[in-house]
């Protein structure tokens, strides 16, 4: 008898006194938890997202589709970014006047670290937690391009990509895709609570909430 058979045998013996008509686990556990906390209008939901993003030390900007290219150009210029990593499906009109570095499978971590900034879209943004979720779609690229460069600009289409809660976000996401959940810039603290940013990802996260895109 192997270990697997021993464990299963113990489970069977432990269940011998359980009635045959006992309620199944899937039915016994209540699933009527709140899908979101409170009722909000679309505008209030977007405002909550902006507030929680800022609380996590992300830098939040708002604009419309027409002004988005100039806003992105201004953010990159203020950063002094000369090279920008670009996923293959990013709309071409978003970026002008900068050297665009394509997302290539053969790029080394050293090459990615040498890029000044990365600009991506997102899959969904969660207002209650201030979280941006990436799923590797064409406008977001491979996971590593948002983890190695020190500066990440993420564009969120408002209101289409904004939801109130995590349960609502999960309904939109494919669990088979490479999901990256981002709540502010990468940071960690040691035992003395000294905060260090940029350890596991970008030191600076800027989120652009764009309407009418």
TrEMBL record:
InterPro entries: FTHF_cligase-like_sf, LUD_dom, NagB/RpiA_transferase-like. The lineage of its organism: Bacteria, Bacillati, Actinomycetota, Actinomycetes, Kitasatosporales. It comes from the Bacteria. This is Lactate utilization protein C. Pfam families: LUD_dom. Residues 101-210 form the LUD domain.
